[in-house]
Amino acid sequence: MSDKHIDMGLEHKFARLEEAVHTEDGVAIEGYASYFGEVDNGNDIVLSGAYGKSLRALAQKGRGVKMLWQHDPNQPIGVWDEVKEDARGLYVKGRILLDVARGKEAAALIEAGAMDGLSIGYRTVKATKNDKGQRLLSELELWEVSLVTFPMLPSARVGAKGETQGEEPLLCELAAAIQDARQILAGDS
Prior knowledge:
Blueprint: E1 11-23, E2 26-35, E3 44-46, H1 52-60, E4 66-69, E5 72-85, E6 89-96, H2 101-112, E7 117-129, E8 135-148, E9 159-160, H3 169-185
Parallel strand pairs: 1-9, 3-8, 4-8
Antiparallel strand pairs: 1-2, 1-7, 2-6, 4-5, 5-6, 7-8
């Protein structure tokens, strides 16, 4: 993943899209951008309710969570129509805009099965560590949810229109190998 974006002190968490469907206004997508209680490849665990305060503050200001391409603030590619916490995690539903060049690319990549990741951009407000050295994230300031190539939560999957499950074992193996390499380089082996 390229880090050619403006460093605003944001952290990122990854998951995979659930579904993509064509609409008149673009490509509708939905899924979980974050799951509660799961250890990610960064050794963090997002706790239930971590996004609540941030989502309420955004709603009070009449603002929303941005949809970006690969965390690049210069490349918005659509809109999130719904961002909410539920029992599983942070659920998002939105539209990739096909009138935006990167949006058109993202939609094509999702439909082909080449891209299926979601990643959150946030600031940690409150966190503690458990006895395993894992960071427990209890309050996060959510800024954006991006479409990304390699998600950090491999358990979450995308189901694109016309996709056959299990069709891409080589891509999954490649993603797993890259995740393993990231952990080794980060010293988490």
